[in-house]
Amino acid sequence: MRYDDCVEILDSYTQQFTDYYNKAGRGHEIESLKIPVGGDQLTRIRLDGAKSLRLGAHTRAERFDCLEPMIIELFHTLMDFLEKMVKKLMKKTSGRDKCTLAHLKAVIQRSDVNHNVKGRFKSHEDFVLLVGKAFTVQAAMDYFGMNTVDDNPTQHIPPENIGQTHKNKRQAVCDEAMTGFMRNVLQPQNFEEESALRTNILLDIDGHVQRVPVVDENIAVKLLSGNKEVIIQMAADELEKGKTFHVYLPNSRTVYISKAENDDLFHYVMCFLQLYFLIIFFKDAIAEGDIFRVKVALKMMVPHFYAHSSLSKYLVECLDYILKTEILLPPKYGIQVETSAFVNSKGGIGKNRPMDLQKENQVKELKNLIKGLGANKTENAIVNISKAAPIINDIVSNIDLQINFKDFHTSHKKRSNSDDFKTLLQEFQLIKPLQYIPGRKLVSYRNIRPNVHAELLHCRDTYYEAIMVIVNRLRRNIPVQCEESDNESLEDGSDVEYCDDF
Predict the structure, then answer these.
(1) 8 A C-beta contact, residue 317 and residue 72
(2) Which pLDDT tens digit goes with each residue over 60-113?
(3) For 499, phi and psi rounded to 5 degrees?
(4) Can you give the three-state secondary structure of 442-464, one letter per residue?
(5) CB under 8 Å to 61, separation ≥6 — which residues?
(6) Cα–chain-centroid distance for residue 39?
(7) How many CB atoms lie within 10 A of CB 422?
(8) Quick one: which of 306, 346, 291 has its CA closest to 71?
(9) What is the dihedral of CA 290, 502, 338, 85, to 10 degrees?
(10) CA pair distance 228, 426, nearest whole angstrom
(11) Whole-number pLDDT of residue 253
């Protein structure tokens, strides 16, 4: 998309809403009117540049002062985040590594998951959400000591009469259980938490893994000898060097203590779960229209985009969105910009969708209508059919509703998520991916970090400096160097569709 095309687009926007306001008798409001313009990363960059070309124009309309701000849309941010996740955790060479995404894809035969996220977004999203749900359920089963989802808990069992207790008591028991479970599956969410975690050391005590704090360069391990508790002091640096301590207890039992080896599979699953939780958090915030949680999610995405590349396009877009809505724009107008990112065409609580997702589906329907014009179609014919598209779709939808028409998109049998979910749980029962087993290796993910902050901890200062450079350039409206831009729009064969549970 060239800049002259972008200027023409902005001119058409200005002319359209000017006509609308004049016909409504509200032409005097145009002088103070501001309308946000959203799009994918490439669209925002191009439109911002096109607007800059008109800075020296004489009138407000010619300068496009009413079109402000140019801002990123949420669905394209989610799509790019999912693409980065697939690139990181579903390498094509990792199919032989047990419980990786590439391996699980083969186990449940998801052939439509082909690493092309923009072309097969829905297939990749469904696959990631299914695997994330299976890992979460498996983590809950391990926490409560269950072999199958139908078993009764054998660990962390709630009181038998919990159903007959007061609400406050039930809430306290639920909070305690959830706190313990989330402690097992959540990783540090910032550098401070990760640094605090580094003050502990993971020990292998006779095959049992235990995290022990380091105090004054020493650690204290509690062991049971009969009915007595024995505390063993040892130097942390000796353990770091790989030394194994042999502890002889009075009951003639020898305990071997050493630093636990890395478990690549456990760290891989933890890394995946952090990304999965962020995706469902972001999707839920959008569905609820919660502008505050949306910004929290975007802030949490920033280190993930940076870890992919310091020149990541959507790293810049997340910072640009937060900077404009929280700092540069007036508070009231900032909230208006944030809420304009959602659309709820059919009503209902929790039924919001990103505005750009709706536009993508409308463009897809429009392409089908234009294609129906056949060969040698004129520009006027395309313009006319585009204007009539909403009315045509309404007429067709009403006719389909009256005759109970069912549109079968494919003759192939759709895979059952419930069957695939059971298959994944059976696979997990054999491999135990959420139990820390020292020494497990993944060929394609050697020494993978369990979270993004552990990955970036060694270059934390460089990360902060890079973020501030980007922010300062955005505040002065100076272009930021990014990766080479590609086509952000969905392909014609994309399977993105409306979802009731976005």
Answers:
(1) yes
(2) 888 998 988 899 999 999 999 999 999 999 998 998 999 999 999 999 999 889
(3) -125, 135
(4) CCCCCCCCCCHHHHHHHHHHHHH
(5) 14, 18, 30
(6) 19
(7) 15
(8) 291
(9) 100
(10) 41
(11) 76
Alpha-carbon dihedral of residues 462, 467, 471, 473, nearest 10 degrees?
Answer: 50
Q: How far is residue 8 CA from its own chain's centroid?
A: 35
C-alpha span between 70 and 63 (Å, rounded):
14
Name the amino acid, one letter, at 411: S
Token look-up 């497990």 returns 440
| C-alpha of 81 from chain center | 6
Q: Dump pLDDT digits (tens) for 228-283.
A: 788 888 888 888 888 888 888 776 678 888 888 899 999 999 999 999 999 999 99
Q: Which residue has the tokens 């396009």?
A: 313
Q: Using the structure block, give the residue that is written with the tokens 């207790």.
A: 165
* Segment of 146-150, 231-235, 302-306, 488-492 carrying the highest mean pLDDT: 302-306
C-beta atoms surrounding 293 within 10 Å: 15
Question: Which run of H or E residues covers position 51?
Answer: helix 41-53
Q: Residue 231 corresponds to which amino acid?
A: I
Cβ atoms of 17 and 60 within 8 Å: the answer is no
- For residue 77, count CB atoms less than 10 angstroms from its CB and return exposed for 0-12, middle for 13-18, buried for 19 or more: buried
Q: How far is CA 367 from the centre of its chain?
A: 29
Give the C-alpha separation, 166 to 180, whole Å: 22
Q: Are 250 and 225 in contact (CB under 8 A)?
A: yes
Dmax over CA atoms of the chain, in Å, equals: 95
pTM here?
A: 0.89
Is residue 439 classed exposed, middle or buried when 0-12, 13-18 and 19+ CB atoms within 10 A define those classes? exposed
Q: Which spans in 256-406 are helix H?
A: 264-288, 291-308, 313-323, 331-339, 355-371, 379-402
pLDDT, tens only, 171-222: 999 999 999 999 999 999 999 999 988 888 888 888 888 888 888 888 888 8
- Retrieve residue 437's tokens: 């087993």
End-to-end Cα distance, the chain: 30
For 107, counting Cβ atoms within 10 Å of its Cβ (0-12 exposed, 13-18 middle, 19+ buried), the class is middle
Asked if 444 and 97 touch (Cβ cutoff 8 Å), the reply is: yes
> Rounded to whole angstroms, how far apart are CA atoms 124 and 82?
8
Cα separation values, 33 from 14, 277, 419, Å? 11, 39, 54
Predicted pLDDT of residue 490: 52
Which position has the token pair 């199919």?
Answer: 95
Give the three-class secondary structure for 88: helix
